[in-house]
Specification:
Largest sheet: 5 strands, antiparallel
Number of strands: 8
Number of helices: 3
Shape: globular
Strand order of the largest sheet: 1-2-3-4-5
Radius of gyration: 19 Å
Strand content: 35-45%
Order of helices and strands: EEHHEEEEEEH
């Protein structure tokens, strides 16, 4: 229906790389929530408006954050809604591979990635991190035209973890 991709923003200093939602994500959902709530107050509620309030509240309180800490050599990943979120912590030494990959949404076979695609199929780039215990996480997925953003974040992650990106 809607092609809404959560874009993560990078905040970097010499010791940490923090990848999290940009501030405009929270601003947009705050405006949506306030608008819907004011409409409910003025005109009354309906089942659709209540569903929209709940959905907007969940989107507003959604949290996804990657923190790469050079000093402690750890990666902390937090994801959840509101105060209910899960935290994973990994050591840099447990990283097996950091990989950038290209895939096409809506296509199982990713061969012939250079040919012209129909309008409903889009190219996406992902930054994935693989660990020695077999787990892997996708840090960021962006559309083809935002590949430069992924390259900048991948370079920062590679620099802080001292791992080469494939």
């Amino acid at each position: 229906m809607f092609d809404f991709n959560l874009q993560l923003s990078k905040k970097s200093d010499s010791e940490n790389v923090l990848i999290s939602q940009p501030i405009y994500y929270y601003i947009v959902f705050s405006i949506i929530l306030v608008t819907i709530l004011s409409t409910i107050i003025l005109y009354g509620s309906s089942p659709l408006s209540i569903i929209l309030v709940i959905t907007s509240f969940i989107a507003l309180t959604y949290k996804e954050r990657w923190n790469f800490n050079r000093e402690s050599e750890t990666i902390t990943f937090q994801m959840g809604v509101g105060f209910i979120y899960h935290t994973n912590t990994f050591k840099f030494k447990d990283i097996e591979l950091i990989e950038k990959s290209l895939f096409i949404k809506g296509k199982k076979d990713n061969s012939n990635l250079d040919k012209k695609l129909p309008f409903y199929m889009s190219k996406y780039h992902s930054l994935k991190i693989y660990f020695k215990n077999g787990k892997y996480f996708t840090i960021l997925t962006v559309k083809d035209y935002k590949k430069e953003t992924l390259d900048i974040i991948a370079a920062e992650v590679s620099n802080i973890t001292k791992k080469i990106i494939n």
